[in-house]
């Protein structure tokens, strides 16, 4: 049986089981092994093994039945235990409900008892309070104030509460019988009121805000409260003196600090007025407080915008001059009027530099730090304008601040930099020219984005509901248009310089023998040196344009550059005559130009070079196939004179009588 158990190892496989059994039986192996195969012995072994399996099955079955019986018995015992627990839980729940009902009953009784006690205690307290007041009233009636509450300064708060109540009672008594006692109570009332006012004043001088709050709470019940608007007026006089002291000392010596102080004091005063509005100062408290603030600041607010404009004008000029001084640069005067307008028109139509070319040594004369300083000053000015301007004057004042920003940032800085940048652009035939105008374009765009953001975030909320909005938008439009004209002019002249540099490379590097090699069978280069240098130069300029522009401007500039690049190569190729191998080399050059054109990512440019590549095939195609090639997909729509012009560039044009294909 132990041997049988060993044969039932996991995982069990019936075929494997029979094989292992047969293998363990002498003479039972499929190959016989050391003994010959003995089927009878194997059959006998199988029969004996079957008997063993039957015995094993019976044994296992008895064990299973025993375990099942034990499981059923334990399941019944567990079910009985669960039922006992459920019954115990139900009994506990019933006890809990009874306890909850009892607690609710007791709570109801306690609340009822509390209501009864309160009903008895309230009249008792009132009676005690009435008796206490009658005792104090008798003291005034006798004229002898014996109680400690009227003679102890530490109990002034309690005395004030008593005298205030006695004062109300005395007002209801007939004058003819109680005139003397009413006078005594009134005298004590005013005496305590005076003491409280003195205590409030002393606490204010000591800076004890908590004590001031306590005394003020007591004074609220006295007639002194009716004089609070008078107290506010007196307070405003003190505040006005403080404001005058803080502002007058800087008004004519430090305008920047004066404007900061004015804004700070006005802000804090209006915040104080907001807090005072929370108190019961009468039905017209808002109007009263507004008039008080106006009386304090009116003389300063009337001249505010003039001082703001003068400060911005001076501050902006100083920031600009400090920047140009740091560059050791003396600003060149930019012409204005009819002469400048005439020059601008000539420059726009002819694209020619007017005046001497300036070498800026790569300096753009645009400063992010300067721009941040100007915008920061203007932002503070807009904030002060919003707070200190009369609502009716706010749009007009904000517009005047905006005009100063336009003058300093857009005219004196950006426009000046564009003028200098235009003057620094070399002529189109200059050699090895450094083109810095694209750097000017990049920085000018970044600066104008900041300008536009301040326009939307700071200025628009101040003028959005006034007629000044249209004036601001028109002024902004004019500034943008003036900048765009100069940017477009500079970019166009820069592209001309790029094309001029390409011409120079081609003129110096391209040899006539490049396309008419002496040894047609020994041409080892993939493309000419001129092509390689032009492509390298163009790739650098394309990358420069991408860094300097954003949005659709990139595609617009690269399209123009790509079209002029194609025109240059097209005209350049027509200056040479081509042998068969030279034509192949021209095709290789154009293929390299086309690979360079892919970097533009402009479909039109790539299409132009695809067509040029197809045209160059006319330089090498067999004469008999010319007509077929000319009618191909890329050339069929081209002017036949253009096709003929390219065919005429072949050295075998006359000998092979190629002109007959275009007759």
Automatic annotation (TrEMBL):
Coiled-coil region list: 43-70
Q: Which InterPro entries match?
A: Sec10-like, Sec10_HB, Sec10_N
Q: Alphabetically list the UniProt keywords.
A: Coiled coil, Exocytosis, Transport
Every copy of the Exocyst complex component Sec10-like alpha-helical bundle domain together lies at: 158-226, 239-661
Could you state one GO cellular component term attached to this entry? Answer: exocyst
What range(s) does the Exocyst complex component Sec10 N-terminal domain occupy?
A: 39-148
Task: Identify this protein by name.
Answer: Exocyst complex component 5
Q: Whose protein is this, by species? A: Cyclopterus lumpus
Query: By which gene is this protein encoded?
Result: exoc5
């Amino acid at each position: 049986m132990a041997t049988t158990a060993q044969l039932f190892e996991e995982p069990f496989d019936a075929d494997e089981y029979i094989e292992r059994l047969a293998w363990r039986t002498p003479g039972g192996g499929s190959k016989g092994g050391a003994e010959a195969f003995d089927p009878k012995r194997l059959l006998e072994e199988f029969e004996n093994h079957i008997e063993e399996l039957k015995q094993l099955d019976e044994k296992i079955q008895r064990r299973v039945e025993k375990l099942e019986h034990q499981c059923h018995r334990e399941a019944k015992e567990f079910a009985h235990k669960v039922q006992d627990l459920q019954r115990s839980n139900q009994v506990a729940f019933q006890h809990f409900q009874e306890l909850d009902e009892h607690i609710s009953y007791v709570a109801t009784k306690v609340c009822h008892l509390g209501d009864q006690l309160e009903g008895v205690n309230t009249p008792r307290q009132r009676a005690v309070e009435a008796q206490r007041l009658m005792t104090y009233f008798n003291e005034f009636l006798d004229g002898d104030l014996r109680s400690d509450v009227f003679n102890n300064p530490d109990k002034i708060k309690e005395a004030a509460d008593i005298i205030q109540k006695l004062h109300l009672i005395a007002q209801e008594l007939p004058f003819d019988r109680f005139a003397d006692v009413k006078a005594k109570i009134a005298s004590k009332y005013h005496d305590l009121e005076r003491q409280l006012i003195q205590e409030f004043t002393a606490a204010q001088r000591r800076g004890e805000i908590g004590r001031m709050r306590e005394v003020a709470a007591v004074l609220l019940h006295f007639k002194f409260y009716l004089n609070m608007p008078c107290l506010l007026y007196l307070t405003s006089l003190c505040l006005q003196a403080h404001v005058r002291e803080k502002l007058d000392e800087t008004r004519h010596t430090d305008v920047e600090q004066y404007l900061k102080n004015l804004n700070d004091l006005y802000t804090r005063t209006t915040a104080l007025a907001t807090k005072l509005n929370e108190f019961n100062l009468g039905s017209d408290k808002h109007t009263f407080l507004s008039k008080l603030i106006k009386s304090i600041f009116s003389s300063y607010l009337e001249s505010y915008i003039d001082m703001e404009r003068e400060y911005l004008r001076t501050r902006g000029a100083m920031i600009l001059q400090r920047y140009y001084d740091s560059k050791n640069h003396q600003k060149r005067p930019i012409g204005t009027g009819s002469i400048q307008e005439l020059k601008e028109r000539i420059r726009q139509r002819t694209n020619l530099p007017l005046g001497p070319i300036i070498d800026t040594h790569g300096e753009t004369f645009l400063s992010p730090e300067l721009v941040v300083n100007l915008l920061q000053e203007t932002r503070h000015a807009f904030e002060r304008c919003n707070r200190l301007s009369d609502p009716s004057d706010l749009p007009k004042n904000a517009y005047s601040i905006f005009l100063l920003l336009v003058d300093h940032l857009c005219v004196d800085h950006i426009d000046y930099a564009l003028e200098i940048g235009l003057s620094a652009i070399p002529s189109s035939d200059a050699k090895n020219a450094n083109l810095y105008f694209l750097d000017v374009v990049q920085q000018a765009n970044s600066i104008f984005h900041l300008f536009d953001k301040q326009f939307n975030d700071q200025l628009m909320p101040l003028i959005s509901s006034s007629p000044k909005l249209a004036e601001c938008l028109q002024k902004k439009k004019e500034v943008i248009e003036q900048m765009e004209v100069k940017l477009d002019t500079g970019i166009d002249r820069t592209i001309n310089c790029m094309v001029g540099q390409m011409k120079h490379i081609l003129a110096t590097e391209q040899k006539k023998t490049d396309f008419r090699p002496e040894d047609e069978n020994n041409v080892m280069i993939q493309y000419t040196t001129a092509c390689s240098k032009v492509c390298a130069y163009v790739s650098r300029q394309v990358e420069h344009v991408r860094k300097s522009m954003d949005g659709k401007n990139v595609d617009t500039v690269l399209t123009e550059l790509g079209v002029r690049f194609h025109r240059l190569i097209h005209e350049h190729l027509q200056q040479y005559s081509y042998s068969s191998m030279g034509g192949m080399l021209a095709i290789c050059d154009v293929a390299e130009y086309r690979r360079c054109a892919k970097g533009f990512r402009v479909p039109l440019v790539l299409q132009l070079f695809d067509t040029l590549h197809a045209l160059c095939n006319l330089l090498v195609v067999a004469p008999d196939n010319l007509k077929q090639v000319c009618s191909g997909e890329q050339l069929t729509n081209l002017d036949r004179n253009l096709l003929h012009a390219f065919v005429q560039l072949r050295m075998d044009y006359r000998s092979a009588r190629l002109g007959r294909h275009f007759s």
